[in-house]
Amino acid sequence: MNNSTAYQDLDSSQASGTIQIALYYLVIVLKVAINPTCALIALFAAFVNIMTFLKMDLTQGVNLSLFILSASYLFLAILLALGNVLKATLWLGLKNLAIVRLLLMGNRFGNFLNITAYVVTTTIAIFRCLSVAMPFKFSNLVTTRRQLVAIVMGCCVGFSVPIRTQILYYTAGTFSPVSTVNLYIMDTFRKVFFFSCLAIIIVSTLYLTVALRRSSRFQVTANTTTDSQSRTCKKKEVKVIKTVILVLTIFAACNVPLMLLSALRLASIDFTNSEQYQNANLLVKMIIELGASLNITLNTFVYLRYNTSFRAVVKKSLPCFFSSCSFT
């Protein structure tokens, strides 16, 4: 019995060692090749988005909210690209205190950009649900100014705790009990805030999907009973809803790894400081960064497919791209 138990322990340790080696090399591939490449592609996509929206009428539909979202994604893409380059530099052995400080500063600034992205995406979800639920009152109820006010107020709420915590952190001292408690409060607030926004986004996505399916059932009847102008408006509204649904779905899907990690921490299952799960923790962080890059990049293709104005502006700017690809 002792020998069999010893062999079982040996087999389990060998299997665990093999898994750790596989995770280690997977982290290297993500850190050195995949994540930096995707971050650079996301940076290009974010730049295309922001330059395209600047040439469009931001008072139409959700263009203003998508422009603000693209602006936050542009800065986030810059941080992702810069962070991946700095991490690759550290991995290659070129360690420098200035690089570490830049990474820490980027993480703090990236937190505010994440909050902005969550607030804007949640605002888009809520307002588009209102447009479906109250189609006749929406234009008078939700104006461009009110959308901006809602986004600014949401950002103020999201920024309040991190800003206060950072001030106390540097005022009281890095290792003081006050700063530690406030950092815990900030971490808890961030998780609750992100979970609340994500819940609203998921519920809104489901609601819009059901509403879109219901409207499609009556599309044939509507085409025979309404005039051409009404049909054109209906098609534009359907494209806007499809755009919002895809943007919300991609956002939620790309943030699943971050939400799972936050859920484990809320459940007091924290493996970030355990040496046993060091490679797994690094892999999760790499996947979170990869999800952020994919979120930014995939939005561009959604806009090209369903936003006619966006596609027309890009077609003028990048005719070579449209000569080989078709989004019509």
Describe this structure in words.
The protein is mainly alpha-helical. It has one domain: Rhodopsin 7-helix transmembrane proteins (Rhopdopsin 7-helix transmembrane proteins, Up-down Bundle). The radius of gyration is 23 Å and the shape is globular. About 2% of the residues have low confidence.
Annotation keywords:
Rhopdopsin 7-helix transmembrane proteins; 86% helix; 12 helices; 328 residues
State the end-to-end CA separation: 69 Å
| CATH architecture heading | Up-down Bundle
Radius of gyration: 23 Å
Which structural class do the helices and strands define?
mainly alpha
Shape type: globular
Percentage of residues assigned to helices: over 70%
Low-confidence stretches: 6-11
Q: How many individual domains?
A: 1
Fill in the CATH topology: Rhopdopsin 7-helix transmembrane proteins
Order of helices and strands: HHHHHHHHHHHH
Strand content: under 5%
DSSP, total strands = 0
- Largest sheet properties: none
Kindly provide the name of the CATH class.
Mainly Alpha
Q: Mind telling me the CATH superfamily name?
A: Rhodopsin 7-helix transmembrane proteins
Count of DSSP-assigned helices: 12
Mean pLDDT level: 75
Topology:
Blueprint: H1 2-54, H2 63-91, H3 97-133, H4 138-141, H5 144-172, H6 177-217, H7 219-225, H8 228-254, H9 256-266, H10 278-306, H11 308-317, H12 319-324
Helix pairs in contact: 1-2, 1-10, 2-3, 2-10, 3-5, 3-6, 3-8, 5-6, 6-8, 6-9, 8-10, 9-10, 10-11
